[in-house]
Amino acid sequence: MSENARKVAIVIPVYNRREITLQGLRSLARIDQAGLDVRIFIVDDGSTDGTSAAIAQEFPDVVIIHGDGTLHYAAGTNRGIEAALEWNADLIATMNDDAVFHEQFLQRLIRTADANPRSIVGGLLLLWDEPHKVFQVGQTWHTSKGGWVIPSDWTAFSVPQTAMMRFAKAGWKLLVEPKAYVWCEPNTYPKPLHEMSKGKILRTLLLDKRHPLNLSRQFIARWESAPTRSKAVASFIVYLGQLAGKTLGFVSGGKK
Predict the structure, then answer these.
(1) Contact predicate 143/239, CB 8 Å
(2) Under CATH, to which class is 1-96 assigned?
(3) How far apart, in whole angstroms, are the C-alpha atoms of residue 191 and residue 2?
(4) How much is the average pLDDT of 166-178?
(5) Helix or strand or coil: residue 144?
(6) Domain coordinates in residue numbering, the chain
(7) Does residue 182 register a pLDDT over 60?
(8) Contact 12, 97 (CB under 8 A)
(9) Strand bridging mode 6-14 / 36-44
């Protein structure tokens, strides 16, 4: 490899999705790496399905960072970024494991980043079961509707969106390179609250920080990414009202 190759780190947090993770790594192994020194950092947050062992066997050059099950997506990504910075990476790409990549996707991302200093460049996310359909591009803030509003068939509010809003507030450009194709798994949605027992609802909302409906997660997401702090609080109150409207009657008269 050339001494002038640019060091590119790819950071992927994973948890108990061994076959999905291996599929993503196989796809990354096929991308164009000309002129690049690519190193993949997998942050395995305590998987119990043999994910780390399988990666080590099939991809011995991948750096595996072990978590204890408390990192979740955000802290896992941060742990991987820290390792990438210690490696003195020139560029860092963060991504999910449930993705298949066009062979030129990384080269195209880098060209766009080079042409736009102080930018965060994303690929074009497409559904892998309907590869002509866009999975996700953006969303709009509506305080009166509980925060970030996106079409119902797009992804739910999550950590990447929160992080991007923080970058935007700090003056970074948020860009999408439309030819950096990434095909990803369609969303799988958790069981709705009205199908849970009262005890399960309380555990989900108050204790289970891995669950997307956990109130702590929902509040932090709004607090960190809303246009203003007052709008963050107002939107969370609206969200609580919406949640109560959907579940209050069920909780009072439904399952125990």
Answers:
(1) no
(2) alpha beta
(3) 51
(4) 83
(5) helix
(6) 1-96, 102-188, 193-253
(7) yes
(8) yes
(9) parallel
